[in-house]
Amino acid sequence: MTSELDIFVGNTTLIDEEVYRLWLDGYSVSDAVALRVRAGILEQTGATAAVLQSDTMDHYRTFHMLERLLHAPPKLLHQLVFQIPPSRQALLIERYYAFDEAFVREVLGKKLSKGTKKDLDDISAKTGITLKSCRRQFDNFKRVFKVVEEMRGSLADNIQQHFLFSDRLARDYAAIVFFANNRFETAKKKLQYLSFGDFAFCAELMIQNWTLGAVDSQVDDMDMDLDKEFLQDLKELKVLVADKDLLDLHKSLVCTALRGKLGVFSEMEANFKNLSRGLVNVAAKLTHNKDVRDLFVDLVEKFVEPCRSDHWPLGDVRLFLNQYSVTVHSLDGFRHQALWDRYMDTLRGCLLRLYHD
Amino acid sequence: MPGKLKVKIVAGRHLPVMDRASDLTDAFVEVKFGNTTFKTDVYLKSLNPQWNSEWFKFEVDDEDLQDEPLQITVLDHDTYSANDAIGKVYIDIDPLLYSEAATVISGWFPIYDTIHGIRGEINVVVKVDLFNDLNRFRQSSCGVKFFCTTSIPKCYRAVIIHGFVEELVVNEDPEYQWIDRIRTPRASNEARQRLISLMSGELQRKIGLKVLEMRGNAVVGYLQCFDLEGESGLVVRAIGTACTLDKLSSPAAFLPACNSPSKEMKESPLAHPPSHGCRSTHNSPIHTATGSRLTQNFSVSVPTLIYTGMGSGSAGKEGGPFKALLRQQTQSALEQREFPFFTLTAFPPGFLVHVGGVVSARSVKLLDRIHNPDEPETRDAWWAEIRQEIKSHAKALGCHAVVGYSESTSICEEVCILSASGTAAVLNPRFLQDGTVEGCLEQRIEENLPAGCGFCHIPYDELNMPFPAHLTYCYNCRKQKVPDVLFTTIDLPTDATVVGKGCLIQARLCRLKKKAQAEANATAISNLLPFMEYEVHTQLMNKLKLKGMNALFGLRIQITVGENMLMGLASATAVYLAALPMPGGIQIAGKTPSDGSYEQHISHMQKKISDTIAKNKELYEINPPEISEEIIGSPIPEPKQRSRLLRSQSESSDEVTELDLSHGKKDAFVLEIDDTDAMEDVHSLLTDVPPPSGFYSCNTEIMPGINNWTSEIQMFTSVRVIRLSSLNLTNQALNKNFNDLCENLLKSLYFKLRSMIPCCLCHVNFTVSLPEDELIQVTVTAVAITFDKNQALQTTKTHIEKSLQRASTDNEELLQFPLELCSDSLPSHPFPPAKEHLESARSNSGIPAAQRATSVDYSSFADRCSSWIELIKLKAQTIRRGSIKTTVTVEKASPMGEGNFRNRSAPPCANSTVGVVKMTPLSFIPGAKITKYLGIINMFFIRETTSLREEGGVSGFLHAFIAEVFAMVRAHVAALGGNAVVSYIMKQCVFMENPNKNQAQCLINVSGDAVIFVRESELEVISTQQPTANCQQSCAGGEVTT
């Protein structure tokens, strides 16, 4: 006796969260059944393995049918075929677009192209996430990217509107799209200590201050691309390190202000010029695409690592960065105060977030 | 020209991409009614076109309005080649034809294609202007309301129940016409869908005419079926019960909160004389022989068994003359009728006087295409024959009417089994006649029929029994005779006194048969049928005994014919009726008691069976009162009946000797094990596993013993097909396979719905078909309803309190202890633990607390007797055991906490969420009040695929199709302004596959009543102006979802 056909259709579509998770994680039906058995469901419910198999198959089939709709979440809301309560719809969408930290760190900043997709088996092998799940996550990134790519208005808002994500998820996706568009390097060994959260935090600051959208809200792509003009202008900041007098003055102002307040004062004093040179040079180089991509590498190399090797506590870093950017306003010979603030406010935020072990 | 149909095409959305180059579609719409077609403009390059068309107006006869569906076709415009069809929407405009139903159909409809399924949606508005019809000789029956519901619909009152109406129409099946060889599958499917739509429209109109002729204004319990006879044609037939209904219009009628169905029917249907309503129509011939090309070539009538509660016994001393009088009355009312049949399964109080038992008839026919189309309607003759047989069976049981009547067919190639079944009954004539019967008789009836047991009393003559049976005096009133078991096809009457809870019982049976042709085949089948009937009956009886119960309700026996086998599946809800004697156990007897080990085996089996019975009794809380002399015969301590009470007490003392016999093992049912077959049977008896704790199941509308439904409902359809290994199939192997299939299916359902615990599967409806040689298909539709065990405690408590008060007036001695118990437990526990006391006291066995707690309410709906029983039990138990307090505290924790959580987590907004359409096979929605019936939904769909693998195989294909069918039903209901379908039924699900060709085809026919319901919680707020308010609400709902 073999079951040829075995289905269950409810007027309200039944969603089993546990099975949904297994499906999203890319397990085959038989693996999923095995995992459910291991979780002790048979003992809890007194069901048989055959019942579990049938139930799992059924849920998988439902998810498979829903997947097409999940690719355009507003469709899920308006379709008539599956009657699903709104809270469940939200759950379906949120879980479908959720991603694994390990996976996102692998592809963050990479071009969402066929080439990257081919590397997914390596990523799968490395992270232990099933290839199926990797593909889903990658396709999700790419799908969101494609949809919001050429839109006006806030990136996170656009994502939220077209994919009905929660705030949190929409902001994460905004970061992913922003990184993918600007191709920031995140995979270098020295960046491994950084989490997706660190990058997402920086992305949000950069979107707010460094993109076209920060100055003009009526352009296409406003939140995706960095403001080219602004990057060009950043060259002007070079004077801060090129002009020796200005550099000395800046240093003395910072040292005066921080004397006695910093545990690592002497180290700071000794390193000031190097650090300042590093930060200003990062700014000046941002005209080149290549250097934009290496932004995080540079920041870590030029600032985070030196400070860390001197064992600066985070509080000291904060004090230093505050003084470092504020005192520039007291430099009479320096005319680009607004530019400096736009650059440094964001950078300070980023650096503080990047500064950890 | 009595009507103007107006249609407006507003917009489309989510259309499929029809032009690969642009990834867009140039869509336009054709609107067709009858032979008139209108077109919208082409809306270029959009998947969400906004046509916003003018109003297309069709001027049509109301006859056409009834017959024809409105056909809307969405197409993709193509400049160079033929336009491609995207899909169609058929809209039945019948609901717009009665004044009280829907006034406009407006909403998003799924665009359906028989090959691709749903492809986007279209927004349509439909209105009808009806002109007053001056033609007295018309053919239409506009205005007659149709209900699938098999009871008097909730917001109506039955003035008169006229009786049986039936009709059938016949046509050639387009699938088998020669043209089918050259047209596309799509064209063929659409021709079929359209034809069936037309035929059911015509059928409904004709039935309507008959109703008008009978001076009724509605058909209740309308059941329409299709017989796909293949080569020989397509039959659409329908039966129903003609009624004159009166709308309950007073706002007060909406107010009373009421969970249990049919409570509101209590307002007596007698109050108004039936003076209104009937449009007098004088119709010219209705029996137009529509394409009757079928004749009877060969037919075998099968001798049928009559199942009943058995029993003879003179109808009590004083009951005799009265019964005769009643019989005369009824006779005169019913004998005018050709067939005194009623498709209803639930009745207004007082309607049902006695129930005789199940009557059924089957006959085997050979289908053949007829060469002489002038032959009289053979199908009509066939059914008339069967109905005649049913009628005579009923007569044999001393009954003049048949209630819960239904008809069905099973077709395999050219053989067709026609079946009809119902419950023989004696009815109260006052509902059946135009004139109201004089009052004195009514009085007598009411006085003579004690509530809750009257229907169990035998209607037939004790001295002239139709079959041998044990009769005893009724355990309730002690005056009249009752059978030892009662089988019926109806729902449990609301006033019946039930002990404990009910449960679903199934008898399953397969019989192999040789493949044969024509007459030989039909003869073989008809030879097998009586044996199958007998075995099904035996199985039912055994299983009933095993449950420790004594009556079956909602019995439905389906016999399915296949190429090489016959399948029988009987489902019913077993209950313990307080009026019937306690069933004896089952005793096993070996035929050859020579061998010692054999003996041992037998005794082992016997023990197992006895254990099972005991376990079941506990599980379903069957604790009929110990009948002791002091309390005997006084179950209804109503004040006004007190005098009678005394009398019956005195009477009972004479009868005690007789009654005592029925206790203990007196009439144990003896099972003889004389061969391996019988052994198998016993084994299979024991393999049925009870549902997991927290689950109950029944196939009737409501579960006896549960009355506190909460609002969560989940209707579902589950389909399974198994392939039998074709090698040396034996009857035993077949039976086992079939049994496993059904049991596994049930287990799967319990597992799937485990999040709803505590819940009950209601109206569980199994359908078996044999699509191919080695395939068995089982389709189940049911609804899971949650209930609140805590609330149950409360209601029971009030019951107990009430009965206590009542009892106290009768018997001082009873008063003391229980009252004390209640009063001291009340303030300390939020949930009155009286019940729990009882529970814990009673069951000191190893049942986990949770399981016990799930089954806490035994008092069936508002019946006094059971709470009275409780009382006695309570008393007995508490006396037997000392302190109970301790157990209570232990018990309290887990189930209560869970219950609380449930309450909170149940989404309070679920019903107010926009656009949700509930579906249920029941006639009511728990916790809600139906305020309006919008019309009948009757839809037929065909889906076909030539890319089965790509659509996920057979399971993927059928899963998607059923989901689509649900979606289309919901969309139609929403467009009518409704928010639920009640009495939903999937009448047909014919699935055919050809995996080698990667093809499959499926036909589904569903029906139900579209309604507007309002939550009882909202009802208080909305109160008087609620019909309009709700309409707006649901309309708004539709808008928002879209």
Briefly note the structural class of the backbone of chain A: mainly alpha
Query: How many domains of chain A, as an integer?
Result: 3
Q: What's the number of helices of chain B? A: 19
How far apart the termini of chain B lie comes to: 36 Å
Unreliable residue runs of chain A: none
* Order of helix and strand elements from N to C terminus of chain A: EHHHHHHHHHHHHHHHHHHHHH
Report the strand count of chain A: 1
Helix content of chain A: 55-70%
Query: How can the largest sheet of chain A be summarized?
Result: none
The backbone outline of chain A, from C-alpha atoms, is: elongated
Provide mean pLDDT of chain B, rounded. 72
Principal-axes geometry of chain B comes out as globular
Which percent band covers the strand fraction of chain A? Answer: under 5%
What is the typical, i.e. mean, pLDDT of chain A?
89
- The quaternary state of the protein chains shown equals heterodimer
Number-wise, the strands of chain B total 33
Unreliable residue runs of chain B = 250-327, 434-449, 628-667, 792-914, 1023-1042
Specify the structural class of chain B. alpha+beta
